[in-house]
Each structure stands twice: as C-alpha cells, then as structure tokens.
Amino acid sequence: MEFGLNFFPSCAPEEKSAQAYWADALHLCGLMDELCYTHVRTVEHYFHPYGGYSPNPVVFLAAAAQRSHKAKMVTGAVLPVFNNPLKVAGELCMLDALSNGRLEIGFARAFLPNEFETFGISIEESRARYEEGVEQVRLLLEEDKASHDGKFHSFQNVTSLPRPTQKPRPPFWVAAMSTRESFEFAGRNGHYIMGIPMGGGTMAELIGVYREEWKSAGHPGNGKIMLSFSMHVAEDGDAARDNFRPPLNAYLERLVDAASGWLNGASTKDYKGYDKMIAALQEDDFDQQFDRGICWTGSPDEVTEMIADYNHQLGGFDIASLHVMPHLMPMEDAENSMRLFSQEVMPKFRGSVKTAAE
Fold first, then answer.
1. What is the pTM of this model?
2. Cα dist. 234→10, 225, 314 in Å?
3. How far apart are CA 187 and CA 210, in angstroms?
4. What is the pLDDT of residues 218-234, one digit of tens each?
5. How many whole angstroms separate alpha carbon 333 and alpha carbon 244?
6. What are phi and psi of 295, to 5 degrees?
7. Which of 168, 173, 224, 262 has the fewest Cβ atoms within 10 Å of its own Cβ atom?
8. Class of domain 2-349
9. Which 3 state secondary structure label does DSSP give 141?
10. Distance between CA atoms of 353 and 345, rounded to whole angstroms?
C-alpha cells in the first residue's frame, strides 16, 4: 500500500490567510521524499471557506513539484463542468512537464449547489458536462490533431500544447463519493477510482461495482483504488484523538455549510440521495468517523490496526490519501504526525521500505 498527502483547505481569510495555509502545505510537501509519501493532491472548489483557497489545483501542484522530486502530483480533482477542456488540457500538460512526468489527473463532477448557481450552470447538466469534458481532455492529450463535436464545447483539428510528457498521457482518476454511476463510469472506461469513504459497507459495495465494470470492459488487471482518510498519529493515542477532534469537527461543519443547498431544496436526478447524505453528515463528527474506521487517529499501533481492518473490509486497496491538516490544524502537529506515521506505521504495509533519513 502507498501513502500520500491530501490538502483540502477549510479556512476563511479572517482565520488563516491563503499565504499562510499554502506555505504550511508546501513545507510538508518538502518532507515527502524523505518520509516516503508517494503523492500529493488538492481540490478544485470556489467561493466558500470549504475548499475555496484552491480554485485551481494545478497552481499548487506546480509549486509542490519543486519541493518533491519523487511524489506524484494528483489533481484531486479537476471539475470539467466549470472549465473549457482546451484550457484544462494545456494547463495539465504544462504541469506534467514541470513535474518531469509525475502528473496524475483526477476528475470530479462537482457537487456543491452554490458553485453551480454562481457560475450560472444548471446542476442538471452536471453528468453530461463531466463525461463530455473528460472525453475531450483525453482526446486533446492523446491525439496530435484532436476533433470533437460536443453539446457544450467543440473543436476541430486542434493541437493542444504543450504535449504530454508521459505517453500517451498521464493516468486518469475518477473522484467518487456515493454515486454508483461514477464507479461504473471509471471501471468501464479504464480509469482509476479516487473514492471518498462514507462507511465501510457502502464503499465495499461500490468498489465491487468498479472492479466488475473494469473486468467486463476487458481491461487488464483490477484497476487501481485510492481512498481518502483523515490521519493523525501520536505516541499517546488519547492525546492524538483529543488533538485532532476539534479541527476535524470544524472541517466537517464547513463541509455541511458549503453543501447546505442540498438541505434547502436542491434536487436533481443525477445526485440521488445527496439531501439525505448531507443531512447525515450534519450529525456526523470525529468520533463517528473514528468508529467507522475512516479517521485514522491514535497511537502507531492503533492506527496500524485500523488500516489493516479497513483494508480487509474492502478486499484490499492500493493507495491511501491522507488529510493531515484539516481546518486550522497547526502545521507543526501535522509534521510530527507525518514523521511518526512514516517511521512506525508505513513499514507495516510497505515491507522493508525505509526513509531517506534512515
């Protein structure tokens, strides 16, 4: 199993500036090679403290690529619904060049009603814009002269520059939370899955759907699965939980606030059950996520057991993307946790891999 970093800013300017947040994040990125973290990813969101500091993941990842010379740079994720594929393709390939071919491209549909309203885009067009956008970016990256007549964007004989450093293109990931169609889309098209666990049983079922679609489409192997978890480790497990509980609860409150449109009447066939999911998240907190095994917090031995249990529930997965700095988590605490996790937890899942410092 591989482990990487997932930065999801949840800050308002009066709490912590974007300059301060990204300076802390880049400091942690500078430790990845030493500590054997294999990727870094960040989101695309707008207009709200939940994710709003990251309107373009490419910008941060271009800077992160200069702090690490080994880790993959993962867009987690680009939102085709709010972007022109011609612009996205060029920006992604520029990042692929700047990182010496370490880019991996995650796409997502977007799910916050306020973003659709502010951009003036119908939420009913979400899936159609998403699937068309992913396909058009694929064509622009794979073909020297690409053409596509779409419902939302069209182009003829376009050579997107720069060309991908990786051939034929960087790997594609599909971000998915609870919609079965997203897991089916990823498996059918031979893309990797970037899952957000909402509960062990549900995610296990959805991963099964992904693997079946992958196999039915005739793709070799079983695909690749990356899942996101919150993580904080300390020698004293109770102290780790007491330290991590307030910032994670604040992060979850920001998530519900950003997605409150689902509680205020937003509805669409493409987001079945999102009103119920956000309502459930309104009641969610650190302790419930800890009990479900998706908040890896405690002593090294406790966290090792949690990872092994969750991995067993899902029948195995490939990569854990770790949210180490929720809301206003101090960077120093996140760094100490990263180091301890690398030294005492990672080796249990990565054989004899040692850190550079060793």
1. 0.90
2. 23, 27, 26
3. 5
4. 999 989 999 999 999 99
5. 9
6. -120, 95
7. 168
8. alpha beta
9. helix
10. 11
